[in-house]
Amino acid sequence: MSHVALDPSTDVRAAGTRSNVAIDVIDLVKQFGHNRALDGVTFQVPRGSVFGVIGPNGAGKTTIMRALLDIIRPTSGQAMVLGTPTRNAGPDLRRRIGYLPGELILEGRTSGRRLLAHYADISGPVEAGHVNELAERLGLDLDRPVRKLSKGNKQKLGIVQAFMHQPELLVLDEPTSGLDPLMQQEFLKMVREAQARGQTIFLSSHVISEIQQAADEVAILRDGRIVTINTVDELRTTAIRHLRLVATGIRPTDLAAVLGALEGVTTIECTLTPAGDAEAVATLSGEIAPFVQVISTLQLKDLMLEEPDLEESVLKLYSAPTPPNTAAATT
Amino acid sequence: MTALEDRALNVRRAPLPLFGKVFTDSWRGLLGWALGLAAAAFLYLPLYPSMIGAAGIQDVIDNLPPELIKTLNYDQIGTGAGYAQATLFGLLGFLLLSIAATSWGAAALGGDEESGRLELTLAHGVTRVQVAAARFFAIMVKILALSALLFLLVLLLNEPSQLQIEVGNLLGTSLLFFGVSLLTASASLLGGAWSGRRIGGIAAGAGVAVIGYVFNALGNQSASLEWLHNLSPYYWAFGNNPLSSGANATTIVVFFGLSLLLAAAAALALRQRDIGV
């Protein structure tokens, strides 16, 4: 599967020097027995950007991230992280990465503070006081035994662990899982601040709503293949909007014909309201301007055009027909 | 990127963090095993004077089936050294240390991977070989500590319990005890590293200990089965009654060398594998 570069700036980066690239993955394949978890994944993450991977469970998100950390070795293909091949990469590379596993298992007996101190000992240098600062932002009590922490608080501990040494690259697998909406916002703020400092963030989620505010680019992964890579803005323009309008002086069948003639307007349902008006419910994707021009000729009584639903458009990409011979992948 | 590089760092790091972590995690367990070992020593050894003093104890032993005596290594039980060997070094102490060594070895890599924690450790600035080596040497120190404790306990009870064990022989036997336990731990470390599961480590460690014990017992039964002694680490350690006749230094070195070999194999096995799949 080739990199679908719709963003013109992506081409510029691809042609530029490799040192501007934080993650460079070329035709990555990972086979677990008969199960092809990754089936030729290619993408690049520019330095200083926030790159999201969206996909249903089992699409291969976790497998990509584990390969970047050299926890698993790809069957074929290459992954370069910060200019170094990940295969058998030494500890120096991993000191420059902060990693949050998707299935975070932490030792339970010790306190959060002592656990973080241990991870600080084996990762990049941690600025004094920075751990407290992060814990305070997330409202995390570091002195409680880890086993007594709720799932959300364990997740916060994992996030602090990944961020504390201010690594050049953050690899975060489902970072917002278990966090309440308020903490999700705080986390996204931390991501933006990290980006402002020049750090690169590579993160995954199974729902786009959790990361659409933070990510510059989003790769959509299904069955071990990248379906598309888009900017969030591009996703927004291709996204589906639900619309409902009520017009007078027109019969429902005529209204349906008018709307049906427009490109991007689908699933049109026109009915007669009790007041004798024509009501249309439909979905709109793509450009808005032609639609607005056409409906301006109608005698509108009511119009509602929803926010684009990225979730729905991403789900549509998920459910696109699966190419033959592609087994479902596990993460 | 300057913002990343210009950070003022005031960093204090623990020396040998991976090695030290094993002890901060498991000192309670180590204390428990030490107490168990002390209890075994204080339970068995002070009984010796009353056993040899009691008329008829030799009669009782003589009336036991010879196969049982050979299995339990009770043939030398009439001497202090034979008694300490049969009850403590060869039975309860061996059992305790074999269980401890197997559980530590199996948990160190296989159990840690199975639980999902190893993944996060390996995502940091360490190599897999470092992790395996640190955990192996930590287990070695723990087994050495328990063996040293056993040495001190027997030394302490030697006089009051009228065991008449020579200190040199006691030291050699304690080192053999350390060696055979370390071999068990290394086997379970390798089993865990190779399989990525705790159970793989337990199978390997328990295999070395149990098969060693069983082959020794079978080899004791008849000349035609004596060849089984060659395959029994238990026999290598205790077959020549080291408490009374002295320990063989070469055997101690062999135990240590084999253990290092198994630990190196564990590190290599861990290095080759996908973790947590």
Task: Give the arrangement of secondary structure elements.
The complex is a heterodimer of chains A (331) and B (277).
Chain A: H1 8-15, E1 21-32, E2 35-46, E3 50-54, H2 61-68, E4 76-81, E5 84-85, H3 91-95, E6 97-100, H4 112-121, H5 130-138, H6 151-163, E7 169-172, H7 181-196, E8 200-205, E9 217-222, E10 225-231, H8 232-238, E11 240-248, H9 252-260, E12 265-272, E13 278-285, H10 289-295, E14 299-305, H11 310-318
Parallel strand pairs in A: 3-8, 3-9, 6-7, 7-8
Antiparallel strand pairs in A: 1-2, 1-4, 4-5, 9-10, 11-13, 11-14, 12-13
Helix pairs in contact in A: 5-6
Chain B: H1 2-5, H2 17-44, H3 48-53, H4 57-63, H5 66-72, H6 80-115, H7 117-122, H8 128-158, H9 167-195, H10 198-221, H11 233-238, H12 242-245, H13 249-272
Helix pairs in contact in B: 2-6, 2-8, 5-10, 6-8, 6-9, 6-10, 8-9, 8-13, 9-10, 9-13
Can you offer a commentary on this structure?
- The complex is a heterodimer of chains A (331) and B (277).
- In chain A, the strands form three sheets. A six-stranded mixed β-sheet of chain A has the order 6-7-8-3-9-10, with helices on both faces. In chain A, strands 2-1-4-5 form a four-stranded antiparallel β-sheet, covered by helices on one side. A four-stranded antiparallel β-sheet of chain A has the order 12-13-11-14.
- Among the domains of chain A are: 8-96 and 168-236, P-loop containing nucleotide triphosphate hydrolases (Rossmann fold, 3-Layer(aba) Sandwich), CATH 3.40.50.300; 240-307, 2-Layer Sandwich (Alpha-Beta Plaits).
- Chain A has helices at 8-15, 61-68, 91-95, 112-121, 130-138, 151-163, 181-196, 232-238, 252-260, 289-295, 310-318; strands at residues 21-32, 35-46, 50-54, 76-81, 84-85, 97-100, 169-172, 200-205, 217-222, 225-231, 240-248, 265-272, 278-285, 299-305.
- Chain A is an alpha/beta fold.
- In chain A, 31% of the residues lie in helices and 29% in strands.
- Chain B has 277 residues and is mostly helical.
- Chain B has one domain (18-272).
- Chain B is 77% helix and 0% strand.
- Chain B has 13 helices and no strands.
- Chain B has helices at 2-5, 17-44, 48-53, 57-63, 66-72, 80-115, 117-122, 128-158, 167-195, 198-221, 233-238, 242-245, 249-272.
- In chain B, helix 2 runs parallel beside helix 8 (128-158).
- The two termini of chain B are 36 Å apart.
- The A-B interface holds A 32, 47, 66, 69-73, 90-92, 94-95, 97, 99, 101, 103-107, 109-110, 114, 117-128, 161, 166, 168, 197-199 and B 1-4, 7-11, 13-14, 17-18, 21, 24-25, 115-117, 119-127, 130, 274-277.
